[in-house]
């Protein structure tokens, strides 16, 4: 299967993710994924262990994070290379410095100066783009997509589509696909994974 999961939380997404890095990697390998990204909330606590596991399992491991922006919106960032990893570290540090204690909030205006080496996904249903679409604020949604395309380029910004069988997913995805067609943005399907097996 030529599939890579690009939005996955381990138990380093505190109070949110349920499974260890080992459990997630082994399950991905079992399912035939060729790559897995770990995108824990506002931290890279598992990055080193994740890289070691990916190497030992001969899988491509992609280091990322789901960043909390000002206003509580989520944005998924993936490090494409060493420079991207450095910029991801800087953005996480800035989010923790700008937010209240244990409530990181990255000012979005810091994103463009740290965009090099990063791939950006629009985020889950708690992302700003999804929230605008859910509230029928489509002109603002178009403007937001164009802003991110300007900051990150067409090659490095993707509108995230998730079908988790939650209320509103199907209609949201239709609207997001239409936005992608209108703006020239690319789309990517992700699972917003929080556990390696349903029983967890």
From TrEMBL:
MF GO annotations: 3'-5' exonuclease activity
Domain Polymerase/histidinol phosphatase N-terminal: 4-71
SMART domains: POLIIIAc (SM00481)
GO biological process: DNA replication
InterPro entries: DnaE2/DnaE/PolC, PHP_dom, Pol/His_phosphatase_N, Pol/histidinol_Pase-like
Protein name as annotated: Polymerase/histidinol phosphatase N-terminal domain-containing protein
Organism: marine sediment metagenome
């Amino acid at each position: 299967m030529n599939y890579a999961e690009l939005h996955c939380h381990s138990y380093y997404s505190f109070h949110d993710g349920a499974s260890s890095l080992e459990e997630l990697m082994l399950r991905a390998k079992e399912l035939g994924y060729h790559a897995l990204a770990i995108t824990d909330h506002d931290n890279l606590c598992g990055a080193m262990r994740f890289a070691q596991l990916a190497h030992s399992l001969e899988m491509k491991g992609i280091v990322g994070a789901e960043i909390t922006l000002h206003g509580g919106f989520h944005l998924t960032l993936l490090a494409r290379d060493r420079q991207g990893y450095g910029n991801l570290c800087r953005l996480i540090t800035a989010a923790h410095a700008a937010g209240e204690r244990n409530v990181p909030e990255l000012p979005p205006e810091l994103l463009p100066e740290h965009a090099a080496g990063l791939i950006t996904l629009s985020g889950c249903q708690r992302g700003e783009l999804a929230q605008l679409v859910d509230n029928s604020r489509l002109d603002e949604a178009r403007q937001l997509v164009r802003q991110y395309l300007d900051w990150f380029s067409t090659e490095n910004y993707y509108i995230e589509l998730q079908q988790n069988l939650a209320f509103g997913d199907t209609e949201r995805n239709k609207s997001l696909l239409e936005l992608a067609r209108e703006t020239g943005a690319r789309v990517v399907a992700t699972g917003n994974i929080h556990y390696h097996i349903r029983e967890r």
